[in-house]
Amino acid sequence: MELIKKLCETFGPSGREESVRKLIQHTVKTYCDELKVDALGNLICRKKPRRKAKNTSRIMFCAHMDEIGLIITHIEKRGFLRFAPVGGVYSERCLAQRVKFESGIVGIIGVETKPETPKPPRLDNMFIDIGARNRKEAERLVKIGDMATFYQRVEKLQGRIVAKALDDRIGCYCLIEALKRVKKNKDELYFVFSAQEEVGARGARTGAYAIEPEYALAVDVTGTGDTPQSPRMAVALGEGTAIKVKDSNFITHPFIKDRLIQYARKNKIIYQLEVLEYGTTDASVIQIVREGALSGVLSIPSRYIHSTGEVCDLGDVEQTIRLLACSAENGFE
User: Fold this and answer.
1) Three-state secondary-structure class, residue 100
2) Is 157 within the bounds of a domain?
3) Looking at the 3D structure of the chain, how many domains does it have?
4) For residues 216 and 210, what is the distance between their CA atoms, to the nearest angstrom?
5) 302-315, pLDDT tens digit by residue?
6) Is there a single domain that holds both residue 269 and residue 123?
7) Cα 130-132-138 angle, rounded to 5 deg
8) Phi first, then psi: what are they for 294, rounded to 5°?
9) Residue 285 within a domain
10) Could you tell me which residues come within 8 angstroms of residue 60 by beta carbon, excluding any fewer than 6 positions away?
11) Potential cystine with 280: which of 32, 61, 160, 284 (Cβ 3.0-4.6 Å)?
12) 139 and 236 part of one domain
């Protein structure tokens, strides 16, 4: 729980993942044979085969480090900050939320009160109030191009957790824990903590190009259909890890899907099947890099994604880690 808390509360919007990367690098350095940071900021952890086998492969496991955020575009005379989104920021989830800059400066999101302001308001109707009295005072604290993330502590809820940035720090946590548990892998494993997923899966693309994996698994969050009057979706909190079948930009290779189901059944790992109508993951680009890779996704069911109060179940997290570790040790040959 302490590591999840550190991961989620660490500042790391797209393109500014340095603090998250340093935390992960310090945590995993004794569990892999080689660590590399590439030009885009991905952390690539390589683990050599630990047992001999006739056939060995390169397998890539991927979870993204970045979170959604805001970037400052203009500072007004009275010291209020105008901003644009970094990633999928929903306007209806922003109003009166606190944000935090890398420097530690905290602000609150306000909205214009003119009669013509649409309801609900758009992002360009909003501003950040950092308590500055004028532009000069604001510019001493924040500069054009500075990024902020939403500001919220991690809390535990009856075996579940609520936090900002569970998308996808909880995926990073699963990769870290799986890496620790893998002891007798027959394949060459690459655990990739990717950059800039929220703005187009950029890190996964460069990481996969360098590794050229035969097989790949991304780990990310997915929505649920278990809240009142929610969209119809056969995924719920507390029902295990979700093996993706399809999302809006990715179709899991049937061989990978079937092998994940086989491993889950054999090891009594609780799972459910996921079809996500809107959204995608790093796997969508990994599968088409170079000559392609047989790819799949393990998803952690989450409520209120891209908000300051994302919720997931720790039991589902554990099932995801177990299936990841099993896949890493046994491979996909």
Assistant:
1) strand
2) no
3) 2
4) 13
5) 999 999 999 999 99
6) no
7) 90
8) -70, 115
9) yes
10) 190, 192, 207, 208, 211, 213, 215, 216, 217, 286, 293
11) 284
12) no
Residue 159: Cβ within 10 Å count: 10
The active-site residue, picked from 17, 67, 177, 197, is 197
Q: Which residues pair with 297 in a beta bridge?
A: 218
List CB contacts of 275: < 8 A, sequence separation 6 or more: 233, 234, 244, 245, 246, 247
Q: How many CB atoms lie within 10 A of CB 324?
A: 27
Q: Which residues pair with 215 in a beta bridge?
A: 59, 294
Q: Is the pLDDT of residue 182 over 90?
A: yes
The structure tokens listed for 216 are: 């790949």
- CATH number, domain with residue 120: 2.40.30.40
We report the CATH number of the domain holding residue 281 as 3.40.630.10
Using CA atoms, how far residue 8 sits from 19, 189, 202, in Å, is: 11, 25, 21
Residue whose pair of structure tokens reads 């604001």 in the numeric block: 138
- 77/153 Cα distance (integer angstroms): 32
Q: For 211-250, what is the HEC assignment?
A: HCCCEEEEEEEECCCCCCCCCCCCCCCCCCEEEEEEECCE
Q: Which two tokens stand for residue 85?
A: 């989104």
For residues 87 and 217, the answer to whether their CB atoms sit within 8 Å is no
Asked which of 99, 127, 150 is the last residue of a domain, the reply is 150
Give the residue carrying structure tokens 């693309």: 205
Does residue 50 share a domain with residue 184? yes
pTM for the full predicted model: 0.95
Query: Which DSSP category does 30 fall into?
Result: T
Region 221-229 average pLDDT: 93
For 257-294, the pLDDT digits (tens) are: 999 999 999 999 999 999 999 999 999 999 999 999 99
| Token representation of residue 180 | 């620790």
Per-residue pLDDT band at 136 (split at 50, 70, 90):
very high
Domain boundary among 115, 150, 185: 150
17 burial via Cβ count (<10 Å: 0-12, 13-18, 19+):
buried
Question: Do residue 27 and residue 115 come from a single domain?
Answer: no
Residue 76 annotated as catalytic: no
Check residue 331 and give its pLDDT: 92
- Whether the CA torsion 273, 275, 281, 283 is positive or negative: it is positive
Structure tokens at 153: 């502590």
